[in-house]
Design brief:
Order of helices and strands: HEEEEHEHEEHEEH
Oligomer: single chain
Number of helices: 5
CATH class: Alpha Beta
Shape: globular
Strand content: 15-25%
Helix content: 25-40%
Largest sheet: 9 strands, mixed
Radius of gyration: 17 Å
Strand order of the largest sheet: 4-3-2-1-5-9-8-7-6
Structural class: alpha+beta
C-alpha cells in the first residue's frame, strides 16, 4: 500500500508539471519526457508517446539507473531519452527531478550556439537558479550535438560532468532543454527561469543587440 501511495504522489507531481508545461507551449505534440527519483537506484519516468499535457497514472514506468523498466503498464515503454534522466541521477545524488522540454526559444538558441557552452549574464532572473544571488555572474549551460544514440549522448554528458559538474540544465542542439532540481518544485523553477532567460536572449539576438 505504501508503494502504491508513493507512486501516485510522484505521478501526480509529474502530471501537474506536464499540464503547466503544456500550457506554456514548451512541450508540443508528444515531445519531451519527465521523471522523479524514487530512491538511490530507481526513478519514475513518463512512457514514450504520451502527450505531456494529458498524462494519467497509466503513463508512467519505474526504471533503474540504466534506464531499464522495473515496473510498468502493459504496452508502455520508456523513451530512449530516459537514459539521460537516469544518468543525471547517477551523476548527482542531489538531483530529484528532471524535465526535458522542446520550447521554441531553447530549440532555436541551441542551434544558433556554435560553442560547447551557452552563456548569459546581466539578467535579474538569473537569481531564479539555485546558487545565484546576483545578475553580475555569467551562467553557463552545456550544449551537446543532437544524436539518436542516447548511450553516446549519456557518455558525453558523463565526460563533460567529470571535467566540470553541470548546474540547472543543458541544451541539445535542435532538440531542447533538460532542466533539473533537488525536487519537482525546484526543477520547475529552474525550467521557468531558464525559459524566461532564453526568451530574452532570443529577442536580443532578433534585435541585433549584445
Amino acid at each position: 500500500m505504501v508503494v502504491i501511495v508513493r507512486f501516485k504522489v510522484h505521478a501526480q507531481q509529474i502530471i501537474e508539471a506536464g499540464r503547466w508545461i503544456d500550457q506554456q507551449g514548451w512541450c508540443p505534440a508528444t515531445g519531451g519526457n519527465f521523471s522523479i527519483r524514487l530512491d538511490a537506484s530507481s526513478a519514475l519516468v513518463t512512457a514514450s508517446g504520451c502527450h505531456k499535457g494529458h498524462l494519467t497514472d497509466d503513463d508512467f514506468l519505474v526504471v533503474n539507473l540504466d534506464g531499464e523498466p522495473l515496473e510498468g503498464h502493459a504496452g508502455r515503454k520508456p523513451s530512449a531519452e530516459t537514459l539521460l534522466h537516469t544518468r543525471l541521477y547517477a551523476l548527482d545524488t542531489r538531483i530529484g527531478a528532471v524535465l526535458h522540454t522542446h520550447s521554441v526559444a531553447s530549440t532555436v538558441l541551441s542551434r544558433l550556439e556554435s560553442s560547447d557552452w551557452f552563456e548569459l549574464s546581466g539578467y535579474e532572473m538569473q537569481k531564479s537558479l539555485s546558487g545565484n544571488a546576483t545578475h553580475d555572474e555569467t551562467i553557463r549551460l552545456a550544449v551537446f550535438d543532437n544524436t539518436q544514440d542516447m548511450t553516446s549522448l549519456a557518455d558525453q554528458l558523463s565526460a563533460r560532468w567529470t571535467d566540470q559538474p553541470l548546474q540547472w540544465g543543458f541544451l541539445v542542439s535542435g532538440h531542447g532543454l533538460y532542466a533539473w532540481g533537488r525536487d519537482m518544485q525546484e526543477a520547475r523553477r529552474h525550467l521557468e527561469g531558464l525559459e524566461f532567460l532564453f526568451a530574452c536572449a532570443l529577442e536580443m539576438r532578433r534585435l541585433g543587440a549584445n
